[in-house]
Amino acid sequence: MSRSFDVVVVGAGPAGYVAAIRAAQHGKTVACIDEWRNKDGKNAFGGTCLNAGCIPSKALLESSELFHRAQHEFKKHGIKTGDLELDLATMQKRRASIVRQLTGGIAGLFKANKIEGLVGHGKLLAGKQVEFTAVDGAVEVIEASNVILASGSSPIEIGIAPFDDAKIVDSWGALEFDGVPKRLGVVGAGVIGLELGSVWSRLGAKVTILEAMEDFLFMADRDVAKVAAKEFKLQGIDIKLGAKVSGAKAGKTGVAVSYDDKDGAQSIEVDKLVVAVGRKPHTDNLFSEDAGIQLDERGFIVVDDECRTRVKGVYAVGDCVRGPMLAHKGSEEGVMAADIIAGEIAEVNYNVIPSVIYTAPEIAWVGKTEAEVKNSGRAYKTGSFPFAASGRAKAMEQTSGMAKIISSQDDDEILGVHIVGPMAGELIAEAVLALEFSASTEDIQRTIHAHPSLAEALHEASLAVDNKALNFPNKR
Ligand code: FAD
Ligand code: NAD
């Protein structure tokens, strides 16, 4: 007799494993199938985020930032270090150990929540049956009352620069370099290009990023993008905009990369090339043709606002469905799907999803950019405050950047918050809460912020919206 579960989740990334835990919290019997295999050949739960994305990249960003600050900032604090030496092997061991601890933690959470963690491939068949192929090849058909597909995404490969896992690599390969490349090329100045470009630049690589678009960080507020571009330039990261890569050829000495820009055909030679031009939904062999699942023209599983597919009782969440490819967006969708399965009313507020780029300075925003508000035709006001005027930022020796708030002119509702500066990724949480509660600028103005704190920058920016900033001259 085949096994049956109330909920079978395919994929144990941040969308899938969180969905499984929430379903178990509702008292459902749950199985979660995942086939992720690390480069050491070992399987692990956690998906891209824990194994090859958010977590290992942040581990290396932290280590490389410390190295950079020790080299360039400690002197200003009156700390003499003598000659600093990079021990990349230890840095990489630390990264791998953090990943191991966290992925092992998911296995522990599955056990604690009585979730059956199944290692292998899952495939949805007609009638909500799921074919599970274990790593030893054994095939089992599992019956499910509900199925949640959370199969994630994979890097986009471009024909003109195919991955060779040695010199031309994807983001995962770029997290696992065992030496610092002297010259690193990156295709794409998106989130991955900037984060991983920063890591290797701080560790000593000469980094050149080729970006096809003319606008830098086109999805961010223009004021933030301007500050960020200046900072990356100061850090020695060469970002070439309007650079359309036409070819990449790996040879003995490195990779010859050709591209076209407004001045015509150009070329550079680098030791390693990271291609980070976006990710695509991963749905290979995920469902049979008669399962009833529909893909859109870009390959995403078609779902409604509540992540229901066209098949009753089958949901899809995370990177494999529309919306930003972010771990926290996927997790919230996983929670929503599990809550709905349990008969609860649940929703994800897609208008209030924070974005964070973990460079130095960090870049974070929530809500609309000024250009988006302008284009909407709604009358608005803005206020900003530079970290250069923040006592805490000065004490930290991290004064680049600013916080900016955009509010509606008529009812003062906060429409967007944009921060570039120290700990922007943490500071944005206050703004997310404000937008979630439809707060007004006045609400932040009247909220007491501890002194001295970086959060005061947001407070001052809210005051600046009404020309009431106290620690910086207001626009008149
Ligand atoms: P995934 O994490 O991709 O997990 C899907 C899982 O399903 C995988 O384990 C896969 O093996 C498994 N799977 C797929 N198909 C099957 C099948 N048929 N059978 C069994 N198993 C299957 N996002 C952030 O929010 N913050 C960050 O700081 C951040 N940093 C990133 C850094 C990098 C370098 C990268 C590449 C991504 C980063 N992201 C970040 C994006 C984030 O990793 C993804 O948005 C997130 O992992 C998506 O979660 P998911 O659960 O939908 O998919
Ligand atoms: P991205 O969409 O952020 O950026 C890709 C960039 O490559 C774009 O600027 C695009 O214009 C450029 N590009 C595309 N084709 C090109 C070409 N042929 N030549 C030159 N440039 C080209 O994608 P990504 O950086 O690969 O990241 C993938 C996903 O992972 C993103 O959706 C992101 O949300 C997620 N991610 C998030 C974080 C975070 O939240 N901190 C970190 C890393 C990744």
Q: Your description of this structure?
A:
- With 476 residues, the chain is α/β, with parallel strands linked by helices.
- The chain has three domains: 4-155 and 280-348, FAD/NAD(P)-binding domain; 168-277, 3-Layer(bba) Sandwich (FAD/NAD(P)-binding domain), CATH 3.50.50.60; 352-465, Enolase-like, domain 1, CATH 3.30.390.30.
- It is 31% helix and 25% strand.
- It has 13 helices and 21 strands.
- It has helices at residues 14-25, 47-52, 54-72, 88-112, 171-175, 191-202, 222-234, 327-341, 370-376, 391-396, 424-436, 441-445, 456-465, and strands at 4-10, 30-34, 116-124, 129-134, 139-149, 153-155, 168-169, 183-187, 206-210, 238-240, 244-250, 255-261, 264-270, 272-275, 279-281, 314-316, 355-357, 362-367, 380-386, 402-408, 414-421.
- Strands 1-2-3-4-5 form a five-stranded mixed barrel. A five-stranded parallel β-sheet has the order 7-14-8-9-10.
- Helix 3 (54-72) crosses helix 6 (191-202).
- It is globular and about 75 Å long.
- Nicotinamide-adenine-dinucleotide binds next to helix 6, strand 11 and strand 17.
